[in-house]
Amino acid sequence: MAFDDTELEPPARESSKAVPRYSRRLSDKILIAFHHACDQGDFEVGEQLLHILEMMLTRRPLSPDTNRRKNMESLVAAHERLWHLRHPEARDT
User: Fold this and answer.
1) How far apart are the first and last CA of the chain?
2) Where are the domains of the chain?
3) Is pTM beyond 0.70 here?
């Protein structure tokens, strides 16, 4: 089976209007991947994705980020979810 690299090319633009190429930020996609990994019980992958997300959110921003507080709250909630998934006995008490 040959590798089809046409899937890697961005879609052709039909108008001259500037349309965003992607609808979600990379950090949002990583958070979604984290939750997907947790849903499938792959906590090691989830933990690594959290480390990447944390690195992205804590480094010096290139531009002012008005959603920084919301992003940090999402990161904390993700850490809490992973902890509860790894320690189910803590919920029983």
Assistant:
1) 54
2) 24-59+67-86
3) no
